């Protein structure tokens, strides 16, 4: 199994706090697929900086409220 990226995230938590929006709804809102959101939430994929900002802005929070660095 591959090493996980050092980026942590609270995407799922923010989806639940936003009324339980689905991975597909979030993906559509920020311009990525549901599969990309799944991979981000599982820590299997680190989003581009642009996507990370889009996700944070969608929830109305700062990027560090959603993503962290453990590098």
Which structural traits does this protein have?
54% helix, globular, 2 strands
Distance between the termini: 19 Å
Order of strands in the sheet with most strands: 1-2
Q: What is the strand tally?
A: 2
* Fraction of residues in helix: 40-55%
Low-confidence stretches: none
C-alpha-based Rg, rounded: 11 Å
Could you explain how this protein is built, in words?
The protein has a two-stranded antiparallel ribbon. The protein has 71 residues and is mainly alpha-helical. The chain is globular, with a radius of gyration of 11 Å. The relative contact order is 0.24. Helix content is 54%, strand content 8%. It has helices spanning 11-17, 23-30, 34-41, 49-59, 63-66, and strands at 7-9, 67-69. The model has no long low-confidence stretch (mean pLDDT 93). The longest helix has 11 residues, at 49-59.
Topology:
Layout: E1 7-9, H1 11-17, H2 23-30, H3 34-41, H4 49-59, H5 63-66, E2 67-69
């Amino acid at each position: 199994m591959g090493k996980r990226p050092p980026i942590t995230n609270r995407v799922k938590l923010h989806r639940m706090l936003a009324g339980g929006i689905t991975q597909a709804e979030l993906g559509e809102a920020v311009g990525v697929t549901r599969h990309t959101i799944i991979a981000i939430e599982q820590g299997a994929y680190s989003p581009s900086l642009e996507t990370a900002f889009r996700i944070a802005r969608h929830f109305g929070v700062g990027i560090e409220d959603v993503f962290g660095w453990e590098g």
